[in-house]
Automatic annotation (TrEMBL):
Residue intervals of the ABC-2 type transporter transmembrane domain: 64-206
Keywords for the protein's UniProt record, in alphabetical order: Membrane, Transmembrane, Transmembrane helix
Name of the protein this chain belongs to: ABC transporter permease
Membrane-spanning segments: 20-39, 59-84, 105-129, 135-161, 168-186, 211-227
């Protein structure tokens, strides 16, 4: 455990050299502020102008879900960029033969970051949410969102040769979150096109208050992780 913590602290020192990565770490808070205070203000202006009862408020649950998913997504994107840089400098091969080992390396990058991002996801939701949510539901959403964030990071490092390609693949992995729109905006039958995406099941879980759907979302994201995990293991072998 000591080796894992030392490796993680070394990674944090490395991140200080790249201001962009540090800024990304604060994106969830900035978006939280926008969601919590900016959107209600905009809606109020639109309601007054259009003379209708509500516009955005029926979708506050969706906004809260995006807030839960955003923190793990951003944090794991940062880790993916760090891992790509370490792979480019051949540091991973070196670290794998130290007492840290390959497993320790993965835990120091994805494991600890996953735990931190899950906790931060709950905190960001608690600070900036619009609608109340059962604690069990929130924890379930945070767990699946964290695994989804790790999956996105693995996709980036598995299918990118460098940080430039990683940013391009990172934009593609943002499609993971778009499945959350389907239960709110697409009719019942057509929306199942998005059922391969974990975020689709998370959105249905929020909309229908169904905990079983969180389990389906977790299964879906674990299936998504199989290919990038195998490819990444070959990459660092």
């Amino acid at each position: 455990m000591k080796a894992i913590l030392l490796s993680y602290s070394q990674m944090l020192r490395q991140m200080k050299k790249d201001p962009m990565l540090l800024v990304i770490a604060f994106v969830p808070v900035l978006v939280g502020l926008l969601f919590r205070f900016g959107i209600p203000l905009v809606e109020m202006q639109l309601i007054n102008y259009l003379a209708i009862e509500h516009i955005i408020s029926p979708y506050y649950g969706l906004l809260d879900l995006f807030l839960v998913m955003l923190t793990p997504s951003m944090y794991n994107f940062v880790i993916a960029m760090v891992v790509l840089e370490e792979a480019d400098e051949r540091l991973i091969s070196y670290l794998a033969v130290t007492p840290l080992g390959k497993t320790g390396y993965l835990l120091s990058r994805f494991g600890l970051t996953g735990i931190i991002s899950m906790v931060m996801s709950v905190i960001v939701f608690a600070l900036f949410h619009h609608v109340s949510m059962n604690t069990a539901m929130l924890i379930g959403l945070a767990i699946v969102s964290t695994v989804q964030g790790v999956c996105s990071a693995l996709l980036i490092v598995a299918f990118s040769a460098n940080k430039v390609e990683g940013m391009a693949v990172g934009k593609f992995t943002m499609l993971f979150t778009l499945g959350a729109l389907a239960p709110f905006f697409i009719n019942e039958k057509a929306q199942y096109i998005f059922s391969v995406l974990p975020s689709y099941w998370l959105a249905k879980a929020v909309k229908e208050s169904d905990y079983i759907l969180i389990g389906i979302a977790l299964f879906a994201v674990l299936m998504w992780m199989v290919l990038p995990t195998k490819r990444f293991n070959k990459k660092i072998a």
